[in-house]
Amino acid sequence: MSRQFKYQDDELIEKAFNWKQMGRLFTFVKPYRSDVNKVVFVMTVFGMLTKLAIPFLISQAIDKALSPEDGTGSRGLLAGIMGVMLAMFLLRWWAQRYTILKTNEIGQKVIYDLRTRLFNHIQRLSFRFFDKRPAGSVLVRVTNDVNSLQDLFTNGVVNSAIDIAQLAGIILILLALNFKLGLAIMITVPLMFLVSTALRKKIRFAWQTVRIKQSRINSHLNESIQGIRVTQAFAQENENIAFFDGMNRSNIRSWNFASALNQLFGPVIEVTSAVGTLILLLYGTHLIRTGDMTVGLLVAFITYIGYFWEPITRLGQMYSQLLISMSSAERIFEYLDEKPAVAEKEEAIELPEVKGEVVFDQVEFGYEADRPALRSINLNIKPGMTVALVGHTGSGKSTIVNLLCRFYDTVKGSVRIDGIDVRDIQLDSLRKQIGIVMQDTFIFSGTIRDNIRYGRPDATDAEVEAAARSVRAHEFISNLPGGYDTEVEERGSALSMGQRQLLSFARALLADPRILILDEATASIDTETELRIQEAMRTLLADRTSFIVAHRLSTIRHADLIVVLDHGVIVEQGNHEQLMKHGGHYRNLIDAQYRFLSA
Ligand SMILES: Nc1ncnc2c1ncn2[C@@H]1O[C@H](COP(=O)(O)OP(=O)(O)OP(=O)(O)O)[C@@H](O)[C@H]1O
């Protein structure tokens, strides 16, 4: 099978237990500490003590009420013991119910906090962060990795505390009931510890492999769905299906292997506990014969020994879960620790109402260290000017606007708005005064009205409509079945290219930025829409400094300043007439376009 997909595995295999990480993870539980304490208290006192008391009550029923050594059995005592046992069962039932409800609630709250923190943080990360990572991999961390911690927080924390308490309680009871017998049984613990530690390492590794494969499936799924139109257009569905099937099979194989290893864990505990029971029976009957123990106590011992293994098994599983969670936690913290590449200075100022003067002063920039994307850029733009950026693909047009919005920081030189370096301005206040209309207009799911209001949520309905009218979008919106309240799908796939463009103009006009950046759509549209868009653009550009990444001749011609870029360098600047007269790069570009249009 020929295949083009390649996924970078960013999972971490074999994460050792890390106390620091653990501590950090548990800071998320801290706000709910009092709730956790309540649950542990209820479960320890009402749940565990009632459970531990029952075998003892049975032993008392056998030894004192049913067949006491002096032969004086008592129905009254038996009924009393039964009554207490019933009360204990009821209390235990209530305690368990309370624990389950409460732990789920705590777990959900912690996961909510974690997911919110992560999402909020990601929202503020710079473009550089997203340049390096496919959307699928970011998605996997916010969903899968956070979800994988869910179990730890819902059951893990509270149950482990309860299990440790139960284990301590049982050890005390066993030793108190019969010290020698208790000690004899515990000989098996180190044995089990050795075997299970060796096994657990393998199990952990196997589950990590499963997670890597699942992560690949997720990345592929994300890419496949986003690229479904291209896949279908190139009739690549079968290749895609075969590739997915391969990944899916490989995932199942790894899962089966990990699960089979996991299943070995149970028998190890069972064999060890059987050895314990054997010691108990042999030594216990000997103690009964020598008169050091009663039958009732042996029965209680047998039950307690069952209880003894329960928390050990659960804590063992919990430990494995903890190690898996560790790698998720690591991945989440890696994102949380990621500092935005474009950081806001503490003393950054709020940008006053902008007049619109923009200066690029000896600007140098590269996305990668050794590949300059812009060199020695000098621009001096007066308020209200319309600037067209032209040049071959990859010449650096979008990079100029990226620096103006401070999506990236310059390597050398500075970008100034009204004389203020953009690095000294609060990011929010900078970007609120700059409007951007992208080539690939992003329409969010919601109504048309919500989409126009995106940059100014407090705009009234009348203002929304006025903006739409100004950019000639009102007509097509009114013709939609629900008018302004028509729900558009994510990315606006039900709207035409031109309609999306007009919608984004309305959005930009409503936000009324002092500086506007317009990345012109390259797609050819019909002449009528083209005319409408031209008119709309004129409305949009009036009275503000505008940068247009220009593709249309008509736009370029009317610009106050045309900046021609070539391989990251400004090779010419001036207005249309000047540059045509000059007969350099610009003239070549225009001539090439005319030749193309008239061909
Ligand atoms: N996010 C990025 N990471 C690395 N390199 C980038 C990135 N974006 C752009 N580049 C590179 O920087 C250079 C300038 O790109 P830019 O997007 O500014 O060109 P452009 O003139 O806007 O092109 P187009 O007309 O095709 O949109 C190109 O060589 C491009 O490969």
TrEMBL record:
Q: Which ranges does the record mark as transmembrane?
A: 39-58, 78-95, 264-284, 290-309
Q: Tell me yes or no: is Transmembrane helix among this UniProt entry's keywords.
A: yes
Q: Where in the cell is it found?
A: Cell membrane
* Membrane association type: Multi-pass membrane protein
Q: Which InterPro entries match?
A: AAA+_ATPase (IPR003593), ABC1_TM_dom (IPR011527), ABC1_TM_sf (IPR036640), ABC_transporter-like_ATP-bd (IPR003439), P-loop_NTPase (IPR027417), Type_1_exporter (IPR039421)
Q: Where is the ABC transmembrane type-1 domain?
A: 39-322
Q: Tell me which residues make up the ABC transporter domain.
A: 358-592
The record's principal subcellular location, in a coarse class, is membrane
- Keywords for the protein's UniProt record, in alphabetical order: ATP-binding, Membrane, Nucleotide-binding, Transmembrane, Transmembrane helix, Transport
- What does the entry list under GO cellular component? plasma membrane
- Which SUPFAM superfamilies does the protein's record reference? ABC transporter transmembrane region, P-loop containing nucleoside triphosphate hydrolases
- What GO MF terms are annotated? ABC-type oligopeptide transporter activity; ATP binding; ATP hydrolysis activity
User: By its UniProt entry, which Pfam families does this protein fall under?
Assistant: ABC_membrane, ABC_tran
Q: What is this protein called?
A: ABC transporter ATP-binding protein
Q: Which organism is it from?
A: Cohnella fermenti
